[in-house]
Amino acid sequence: MSEDPTRELEKQEERTEEASSDHASPVLRAVAEKDIGSAIAVAGHPLHAMMVHFPIALVVATLGADIFYWWSADPFWVRAGLWSAGFAFAFGVAAAIVGTAELLLVPGIRVRVASWNHAIAAMVLIAIAGANWGLRLNVPDAVLPHGLMLSVLAALVTGMAGWHGGKLVFDHGVGLLISSRK
């Protein structure tokens, strides 16, 4: 069972103080002192961190459906790819709305370069996922090769967005705790 939320906030403040004392630069010290707690959470759990798993899994599922269709020519995989691409796009938009709100509401997130890199990569990913879904809706016969190429591209961009999102969480501690602001 997790510790008391008050104790977790105290630990975050201690880490912030330690980080700010480690930095010689006043700019880095100012960045380290900014609040990085999640502003949008449910029952103490940051919502964006919970939501991103769905579009990631669905982008990979779309790629898998395309590969299985390429190998088997079974039309089932075209339908499966259509549904997974559509839900990847829809869940990606939902995660992006929450992530954008976090970016705009929490000053400590806005000042970190990795957050902007993550946001840009995520927006590119949503555009690719939307194009992939639109292609499947309008031209189902174009799954090979165009849908497969979009799926590969989406998987690569997912890796880039995930890398920068991981930097925010693991290197900067962004979104691990609820914001202490009232």
From TrEMBL:
Domain of life according to the entry: Bacteria
Region spans: Disordered: 1-24
InterPro entries: DUF2231_TM
Keywords: Membrane, Transmembrane, Transmembrane helix
Provenance organism: Devosia enhydra
Compositionally biased region (Basic and acidic residues): 1-21
Chain segments annotated as transmembrane: 52-71, 83-106, 113-131, 143-163
Name recorded for this polypeptide: Uncharacterized membrane protein
Keyword Ubl conjugation in annotation: no
Residue span, DUF2231 domain: 44-175
Pfam family, one: DUF2231
